[in-house]
Amino acid sequence: MILKGPVEWGLHCCAVLSGLPEGQYLATRELAEFHGIPKEYLSKAMQSLSQASIVETSLGPRGGYRLAKAPDQITLLEIVEAIEGKHSTFICTEIRKNNPCLTFTNPDSKPCAIARVMWEADEAWRARLQRERLSDILETVKRDVPGELLRKNQEWISSRTQ
Amino acid sequence: MILKGPVEWGLHCCAVLSGLPEGQYLATRELAEFHGIPKEYLSKAMQSLSQASIVETSLGPRGGYRLAKAPDQITLLEIVEAIEGKHSTFICTEIRKNNPCLTFTNPDSKPCAIARVMWEADEAWRARLQRERLSDILETVKRDVPGELLRKNQEWISSRTQ
DNA sequence: CAAATTAAGGATATATATTGTCCTTAATTA
DNA sequence: TAATTAAGGACAATATATATCCTTAATTTG
Ligand code: FES
Ligand code: FES
After folding, report:
1. Nearest one of B81, B105, B117, B71 to B1, comparing CA atoms
2. How confident is the model at residue B108 (pLDDT cuts 50, 70, 90)?
3. What gap in Å lies between CA B69 and CA A58, rounded to an integer?
4. First-to-final CA distance of chain A
5. Centre of ligand 2 from the C-alpha of residue B126, in Å
6. H-helix or E-strand containing B65?
7. Which 72-91 residues of chain A touch chain B by CB within 8 A?
8. Atom 1 (ligand 2): residue with closest C-alpha?
9. Could you tell me if A160 lies within 8 Å of chain B, comparing CB atoms?
10. B128 vs A140, B124, B133, B135, CA distance in Å?
11. How many helices (H) and strands (E) does chain A have?
12. Tens-digit pLDDT profile for residues B121-139
């Protein structure tokens, strides 16, 4: 696990961008202000999302970010991996190779039994995140968050994109 | 995720301890030598396993560590959590609270929808590790590792416990 | 065309977490 | 009694995460 804050930021930013009117962009400055986080650092996470083709950008005045795909075509795993990277959370340093009894080399040896299970656990983690689409999150939010707040959010975004 | 190496070390040490003759202990020095890792730092991981009652200790000459339970009563999750801690890998800093539109307080609000899914993914990870017992690992190792190496390991351990 | 604005990204600084070492203490066994 | 061991505190070194600043090139708006 490499980036802590930026993952949370990226996920929330994608959720906000999904509420953007057609053809509009929202700039890093607004995304940072909305979430109360440092603009320059958030920019790194947005760059990662851009490179992963999860968001797309426009330069110049009224530029910024918007989703590159429909929310039901974006999984949480995509977003998390774009920012954190695709490497496993468990890193095997092959300490079994240090075994003093290992005087011969075993050419066709499998990966360590312990590492394999740790990686399977990682896969289970990934599978859950892949199952969740951004659109699923949006539905939950609509159910959980008071309508008054949802309206205010819309207004806030509108006032920065017109 | 806090400790990286020590988790791998702790898992391997438990596997080694499971091959210990009845009534015998293996000291940190041997465990460190067997895995080619720093003795003093490994000691921290072993202390965590001891506090979690996964291993038990004996002081004085011929002292050291042994498993506190049968290998089929120890899950990988226990070992990992003893060393890494039980906290979730995803840390929600509640950035939603920084929303400038949030002018009122929502007393009975649920945890953030995004955090909930991230925590569910964490649960899936835990579930896989809880399903795997140390005895399962030992069986896999017996199948995968050449008998010659297994024998040498046994001898190596015996020569340090007599 | 000109000016303003924006993302991209390199360089660098700071804070925090991880990794590793050293040493003391108390317990226990041979 | 002497040797040995785990426990754990203190500390140093290193790596990583976090944050800021600045330059560049592209693009849109007017
Ligand atoms: S050698 Fe890395 S987990 Fe076994
Ligand atoms: S506020 Fe932390 S994940 Fe939503």
Report:
1. B81
2. low
3. 61
4. 38
5. 21
6. strand B64-67
7. 76, 89-91
8. B94
9. no
10. 26, 6, 10, 15
11. 7, 2
12. 999 999 999 999 999 999 9
User: Token match 């496993």: residue?
Assistant: A88
Instruction: Determine the pLDDT at residue A1.
Output: 46
Which A residues 101-140 touch B at CB under 8 Å? 101-104, 106, 109-110, 113-118, 120-122, 124-129, 132, 136-137, 140
A50-81 pLDDT per residue, tens: 999 999 999 999 999 999 999 999 999 999 99
**Burial letters for B18-44: b for 16+ Cβ neighbours within 10 Å, e otherwise?**
bbbeeebbbbbebbbebbebeeeebee
- CA distance linking residue B32 with residue B13, whole number of Å: 9
Read off the tokens for B3: 């400790």
Measured from Cα to the C1' atom, the residue closest to D7 is B47
CB neighbour list of residue A118: distance below 8 Å, 6 or more residues apart? A88, A90, A92, B11, B76, B129
Please check whether residue A7 is in contact with residue A30, taking contact to mean a CB–CB distance below 8 angstroms.
no
Q: Is B1's pLDDT higher than 50?
A: no
For A11, name the nearest residue in chain B, comparing CA atoms only.
Answer: B114
Please name the residue whose Cα sits nearest to atom 3 of ligand 2: B115
Give the Å distance between the CA of B128 and the centre of ligand 2. 25
Q: What is the pTM of this model?
A: 0.93
B95 contacts in A (CB within 8 Å)? 8-9, 12, 35-37
Q: Does A147 touch chain B (CB under 8 A)?
A: no
| 3-class DSSP state of A75 | strand
Are the CB atoms for B9 and B35 separated by under 8 Å? yes
